[in-house]
Amino acid sequence: MARKDLLKNLMSPAPVPDDARPIKRSDRGAIGAVSKSINELKSRAIIEVPAEMIDDAGIADRLDEDAGGIEALRDSIRDYGQQVPVLLRHSPRSEGRYEIVFGRRRVQAMRGLGLPVRAMVRNLDDKQLVVAQGQENSARKDLSFIEKANFAAQMVKAGFERKVICDALSIDKTVISRMLTVTDAVPETLIRAIGAAPSAGR
């Protein structure tokens, strides 16, 4: 009798510990939602990055260096601190380094002060980078028509589709075509020699 009970016990499936049980679909969904929330919080978190670890990336949007503007920004940051963080991405070329998505002038000012840069860091590919950069540019009122046109022309040279250019600058194809007509007619060297020309019309 004891032998039969022993065989019965051996043939019966052993109880599965709670921590070894498969995760229910509902549990997996909850865990996935938590992981997604954590990743979103990380992407919004502001960290300090050494300025010397940050490289330029994307497309240059300004035609003028504006040394006076950088100096004024540096003085303001020295007095009041960096109030607005920049947006960076992890460099796809150099491990441990970062690339600027937007906020070039702030990074330049912080380099001059020898201070770390307050930044948000996101994982962006090249297309997402230029779209984010272009949308941030479009939100600013100080970029001139020719600077936006030059930005669009550089995107064309980089091989981006017309839809991506429209999304980046938040303008329609008609305006993009008008901008590219200007940049096709005027050599880039002349555009850069003239500069931003903020008072000039289209």
TrEMBL record:
Region feature (Disordered): 1-24
Residue span, ParB-like N-terminal domain: 47-138
GO BP field: chromosome segregation
InterPro entries noted in UniProt: Chromosome_partition/occlusion (IPR050336), ParB/RepB/Spo0J (IPR004437), ParB/Sulfiredoxin_sf (IPR036086), ParB_N (IPR003115), Plasmid_partition_RepB (IPR017819), Plasmid_RepB (IPR011111), RepB_N (IPR037972)
Annotated TM spans: none
A cellular component annotation (GO) from this entry: chromosome
GO molecular function: DNA binding
Family: Belongs to the ParB family.
NCBIfam families (UniProt xref): parB_part, partition_RepB
Protein name as annotated: Plasmid partitioning protein RepB
Organism the protein comes from: Paracoccus aestuarii
Encoding gene per record: repB
